[in-house]
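[Help] Beginner question about ligand-bound structures

Sorry if this is basic. My supervisor gave me a protein sequence and a SMILES string for zinc ion and asked me to "get the holo structure". I don't really know what that means in practice or what format the answer should be in. Inputs are pasted below exactly as I got them.
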Amino acid sequence: MNANDDATVRQILRRSHELDHGDFAIGIEVQPYKLVGVLAEIDGRVVARSRRDLTDMKPGEVVKHAAELAGQLAAVRLGRGFPRSRLCLGVQVGGPVDPDTGTVLHLVNAPDDRGKDRPPPYEWVDFPLGPQLAAAFGCATALENDAHAFAAYEQRLGVGDACATFAVVLIRDGVGAGVVVRRQRLSVPMEFGHFQVWPRGRDCDCGMRGCIESQLGNRALTAVVKERTGRELDGLEAAIALADGGTAQAPEAIAAFRKAGVSLARGIATLLTTFGPSRIVIYAAEDLITGGPGRRAANAFLRALRNVPEHTFQTSRNCHIVTKPLDAVRGAQGAALIALQNCFGVQLQPR
Ligand SMILES: [Zn+2]
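Answer (accepted):
No worries, everyone starts somewhere. Holo just means with the ligand present. The predicted complex, written as C-alpha cells, is below.
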C-alpha cells in the first residue's frame, strides 16, 4: 500500500467514525425571498451548502422551505437515516429576535422594496420561528439575529483568535451589530442601526430621526442619493455608479456616502466607549468598502468612517477597523456555530 492509499484509507475511516460519532449543525440564513443553508461539522467547518429562492415570505412557507432545505443538506451528506439527536439547526434573520424563546420579534421588508416589479410586502411580528422549525425538522434549534451570527463566525473563525473583545457591524438593507466581550458573545438585542447620531437628522423608518439607518444601509444610502440628486436609482449599485461618474450630480452623491461614513463612525464611537473593543469588523457590499482610484463613493465613505477618533473619548481610540465583503455562506455558517454553542454546548473558542 503506498502513502496515497494510506491517506485515503485514513480519510475513509475518519469519515466513518464521524458518521458514527460526530455531531453536525445546519445553519440557515433567512434573507428576503432567499434561504442560504450550510451543513457544518462540530468545529464549524462547512461540508455542504445550498440555497433556495422563495416566492413567498409568509412565515409558514419559510418554515416549510427551511425544513426541506435542512433535510436535503442532511440527507445528501449524512444519509437519510442520520439521527436527528446528533443534529442541531441554527437560523438567523435580519431583525430583532428573542433567542430564549426562538421568537422573531419583528421582520419586515423595506418600504422601498415595494415598488413596481418588487416582490410583495411582508411583516412578521412575534413569530415563533425556532419552535416551529424544531417541530417541522425534528431537532434542537437556535434562533439569532444576523449580526450576532456574523459575530459568532468571527469569534470562532475570524478575529477571535487575535482579540477577546471586538464588535461586528453588518451593513445590508439596514445596519446591525454584535459584540463579543472577553470571549463571550453578548446575546442581547442591540439596535445599532437606531443609535441616534444626528439630533435633527433625516426621518428613519423606525419613526425616530437621525438614526444611523437614516443615512446608512443599502436602502437609506440609495434613498439619500435619490433625494440629493433627484435621480431615479434602482439600488446601491446605481447610487455608487452615480457618485463615481463624472456627472454634475456626482458631488451630491459623494456627499451622501461621506455622511453615511460619519454616521457609522459616530455609532462605532459609542461601541468603543461602551465596550472598549480592540477590533471592529465591518461586513458590507464589496463596492461600498473597496476604495481606490476612481472609486469616489467608497473612498468618501471609508475616509469618513476611519475618522472615528474624532468622535470618541481618547482612551478608547486604540481600535483597528477591518472591512470584509459579504460572501455567500458566512452568515449561515455563523447560524450553525450558534446552534452548536446553544444546543450542544460547543465553546466558540478560536481554532
Ligand atoms: Zn431608526
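A couple of things worth pointing out: The two ends are 33 Å apart (CA to CA). DSSP finds ten helices and 13 strands in the chain. Feel free to follow up in the thread.
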